[in-house]
Design brief:
alpha+beta, Conserved hypothetical protein from pyrococcus furiosus pfu- 392566-001, ParB domain, Arc Repressor Mutant, subunit A, 3-stranded antiparallel β-sheet, elongated
């Protein structure tokens, strides 16, 4: 049978589909023979609806809204100082947390927390320390008890450090017997509310490689869906000593590219770079003591780059010598003798005006003999 073209089908009635019949049954309408089904109403696209001023909520936005609602509910429970039950991220176990006041000296911050406690001081905690000093600790942290009577901090290490600096002896915390398998993931989830710095995140990635979770940085990048560029940047940050993130107001001020920049500067003049960094660290400590404003990230990077661009001074401490003038050789050629202010290098300048090449060579030879070079 010959296949009919699209043109030959024009004018034929549209057959009623089973879905059309079902729609009529649902609405109480009866089927009237070969009556043409009504065309379905096309739903406007999200783009068109947005252009008409309608607010389109994506599935991502809905998910974030649900997470915020869950977090708000938990914060409300915390504020009521009641019993909080949380499903663990790895084992799925439900753990009950009860609010207690714990001696600050009994709390440890494990490496799994991810936040370097040595970087927490009055300056890096300036966003929460004033209110804690003024009003006390408003939100509890999360702790897990240990067999020796001490506690591991799972969340709130910044609040804990601020309480210690403010002089509080007790720390308000929700204490729960969290399984070991859940503790690291629990801390990571809680840190999302107060992001780790790129350097601290790099230390976590490097730790995964050190303990054998991944064989190489490339395999880690593939598993965690990191781009090759980001893998290289995190690797450079991982190799960065703690001295450098300690230079900023807070480690989160450090850009992701900072490790690569410092690595390039180290190749040029590592000694000058580290000397400049140590000097900046001392200045930062003085600024904290005096309550003064500290430099921003751009100024810190500029100072480090400037230190490397300036050549290292030889004979440091050597005083510049005032120029002396001599007459050398049978012709009495004028010679200027001086010492550089910046490098301490000794210079002899011959006034060769009107002299033959032979006469200049004679003077040079006499100077070299005087210096014991020939």
């Amino acid at each position: 049978m010959a296949r009919k073209s699209r043109k030959s089908l024009e004018g034929l009635p549209t057959l009623t589909s089973s879905s059309d019949v079902q729609k009529r049954l649902d609405t109480g309408a009866s089927d009237q023979g070969n009556e043409i089904a009504a065309k379905p109403i096309r739903k406007p696209s999200p783009a068109f609806r947005a252009s008409e001023g309608e607010k389109i909520v994506s599935s991502w936005d809905r998910l974030n809204a649900e997470l915020e609602e869950e977090r708000a509910a938990r914060l409300e429970a915390e504020a009521k100082a009641g019993l909080v039950t949380i499903k663990m991220p790895v084992t799925g176990q439900l753990v009950e947390f009860r609010q207690e006041e714990i001696d600050v000296d009994l709390i440890d911050v494990p490496a799994a927390n991810g936040r370097f406690q040595g970087l927490l001081d009055e300056l890096s905690l300036s966003d929460i320390l004033p209110s804690i000093r003024r009003e006390g600790q408003q939100r509890p942290g999360y702790l897990a008890p240990k067999a020796d009577g001490r506690f591991d901090s799972l969340d709130g290490s910044r609040r804990l450090a601020a309480c210690k600096i403010a002089g509080y002896e007790k720390y308000i915390a929700l204490v729960g017997d969290v399984p070991e398998a859940d503790r690291e993931k629990f801390s990571q989830n809680e840190n999302k509310n107060s992001a780790l710095s790129y350097w601290e995140q790099a230390r976590i990635y490097g730790g995964m490689i050190e303990r054998g979770d991944y064989k190489t940085w490339n395999s880690l990048g593939s598993a965690l869906d990191l781009s090759p560029v980001d893998v290289a940047r995190y690797k450079a940050l991982y190799e960065l000593p703690e001295l450098f993130p300690a230079l900023f107001v807070t480690p989160t001020d450090m850009q992701k590219t900072f490790g690569e920049v410092v690595a390039a500067l180290r190749k040029k003049d590592e000694k000058a770079l580290f000397a400049a960094a140590e000097d900046l660290k001392s200045q930062r400590a003085e600024a904290i003591e005096k309550g003064e404003h500290w430099k921003d990230a751009a100024d810190i990077l500029k100072i480090l780059k400037s230190a490397v661009r300036t050549r290292a001074v030889e004979n440091v401490g050597a005083k510049a010598r005032k120029p002396k003038f001599y007459t050398v050789g049978s012709s009495g050629v004028p010679v200027k003798h001086s010492k550089s202010k910046t490098t301490g290098a000794i210079k002899f300048e011959i006034d060769a005006k009107g002299l033959s090449p032979e006469a200049v060579s004679e003077v040079e030879l006499l100077i070299l003999k005087a210096l014991g070079q020939v």
